[in-house]
Amino acid sequence: MCDTENVMQRLMLFDQYAQKMKNLLCEATIYVSLEPCSHYGKTPPCADLIVRKGIRRMVCGCVDPFSAVQGRGFEHIRKAGIDVTVGVLEHECLMLNREFIVRNTQNRPYILLKWAQTANGFIGYSHITSDEKPLCRYLMPLQRCSFLSSVPSTMLFL
Fold first, then answer.
1. What is the rounded distance in angstroms from the CA atom of residue 18 to the CA atom of residue 30?
2. What gap in Å lies between CA 53 and CA 45, rounded to an integer?
3. What are the pLDDT digits (tens) for 60-119?
4. How far is CA 11 from the centre of its chain?
5. N or C: which end of the chain has fewer CB within 10 A?
6. Whole-structure pTM over 0.85, yes or no?
């Protein structure tokens, strides 16, 4: 879900913006859906960057369940004197990060199943309403790492 290249691009953009707006950062509030990491992996810790840039306040949706983080990001940021609020829109943030959460708490991939089914329980492909076709055709494959489809279903959406 979160590739290294994308994270690095975001960090570089944040760094570039921060250079231009240094004087505003000491009054800034950063809003994040998941606890900033506090460990070195493929990228440096986000918590260090937040501290280094002098952000005044952080509002976060949920705690990171990854064993290398689990509250350590908040602890590091609080030790630096930054006000941290956790649990804002927590359910929505957990849903937003559900693939990551499932992978780290249940040690398995998040699996989404989508099928068309008749009222009497038969699986079919011609019963998807025309309003649902664009969703199936465009959004679902973009949000997933892999997408499995039968030939008739694929032909229906082409």
1. 12
2. 13
3. 999 998 888 888 999 999 999 999 999 999 999 999 889 889 988 898 888 877 666 666
4. 15
5. C
6. no
